[in-house]
UniProtKB/TrEMBL annotation:
GO molecular function: ATP binding; biotin carboxylase activity; metal ion binding
Keywords in alphabetical order: ATP-binding, Biotin, Ligase, Magnesium, Metal-binding, Nucleotide-binding
Name of the featured protein: Acetyl-CoA carboxylase biotin carboxylase subunit
InterPro entries assigned: Acetyl_CoA_COase_biotin_COase (IPR004549), ATP-grasp (IPR011761), BC-like_N (IPR005481), Biotin_carboxylase_complex (IPR050856), Biotin_carboxylation_dom (IPR011764), Biotin_COase_C (IPR005482), CPAse_ATP-bd (IPR005479), PreATP-grasp_dom_sf (IPR016185)
Organism encoding this protein: Aggregatimonas sangjinii
Biological processes, Gene Ontology terms: malonyl-CoA biosynthetic process
PANTHER family documented for this protein: CARBOXYLASE:PYRUVATE/ACETYL-COA/PROPIONYL-COA CARBOXYLASE (PTHR18866), METHYLCROTONOYL-COA CARBOXYLASE SUBUNIT ALPHA, MITOCHONDRIAL-RELATED (PTHR18866:SF33)
Amino acid sequence: MRKILVANRGEIALRVMRTAQKMGIKTVAVCSEADRNAPHVRFAGEAVLLGPAPSSESYLAMEKVLQAAKDTGADGIHPGYGFLSENAVFAQMVEDHHITFIGPRPHAIKVMGNKLAAKEAVRDYDIPMVPGIEESITDIKLAEKTAKEIGFPILIKASAGGGGKGMRVVASLEELPEQMNRAISEAEAAFGDGAVFIEKYVSSPRHIEIQVLADTHGNVVHLFERECSVQRRHQKVVEEAPSAVLTPEIRKAMGEAAIKVAKACDYVGAGTVEFLLDEHKNFYFLEMNTRLQVEHPVTELICGLDLVEQQIKVARGEKLGFAQEDLKIQGHALEVRVYAEDPLDNFNPSIGTLSTYQIPNGEGVRVDDGFEEGMPIPIYYDPMIAKLITYGKTRDEAIQLMVKAIGDYHIEGVATTLPFGQFVCEHEAFRTGNFDTHFVKQYYSPEALQKKYAEEKEIAAKVGLFLFLEQQQKL
């Protein structure tokens, strides 16, 4: 592979290009008009303008992306995450034009992109699953019958897509018709597919995912777990590896289950198998993400691997250079996603220009970003500015490093989720590992964050006064 087109933007485009450059591979950037001067465009050896800012006319325009690859002579396309990364039609188009898609085969993307198809695919592999039905449902009467059999509370989920869309928790039979219709409408609007299904609602779950890596020679390994339970609106904001609560036995069982899921769809490349872990430490298959995850850096740090490099090597047809027994967990890593969102205003987007942008540095601190000081935050895309990652020998060390790094990260011009990240890292429930996916609902509120702000200002003022008086006495 001599030249890779990265069909993405922002931090992940830069992340992929840096590894490609390290491997001696030329890179091609694509961009919208909103990203003409973005860092990933300047970093690449070549750049192609796809079109106007809206994703549908640029980063999601399959024909334009493919034509850019052909025009620049790229023999590989890396999709990053989001946009076209889990689009089986695009992956097939790339293959049909004899360009290497750096990701799984179209079949695996298609199967695992539909939750019901994914459940069907793994049915014969003895994978634990949440009790529920394994086909889509639209009939209210049948839904009521099914819900009674499963027992309330239940969860209505969209078969396609994710991110919490088309998802409804139903506590009673009376709520079911309205919530069912809402879930179907939401799923149709978000994914163009109104298919939903019903399963038992796991009331206090942790979100644990397993990183898998597979080559084209039948070798599949897992790279241990990531804990992704701190979420807002069903989307992750703080991740860590390894989990603070998994025993070696559960870790081994979940890893083996994840490998079975990968084998069930003939998976190739880097992928992530997501599980729910209940309060009794029972785990259940949730879904598979057929791409590189946003939070992959925490796995890289505890395993000492470059996952993008592994993706490229697998796409070139190389065998994995290690076996499962060669992999060991080394230390602890933590990631806080830095979004241009206001945690004091229900995490609503904060649009503006980065008038100040200074990143932290030092041993054990990593920042994956795609912005620079003076750049505006475009309104057309996901509002993530960067990922702040810390690594320590222990979990406590990684947390302490994160708190310090957040304090050293200076952003002005937009509100960010950095204060929320600090709130999480300093909260007793997080520090002790005693939390689940309801962390935000249980512990966080704008008032709690404002109270913390006020307390810190008061302490700072007292310290300042003490130092001033001490200095005065010396005069």
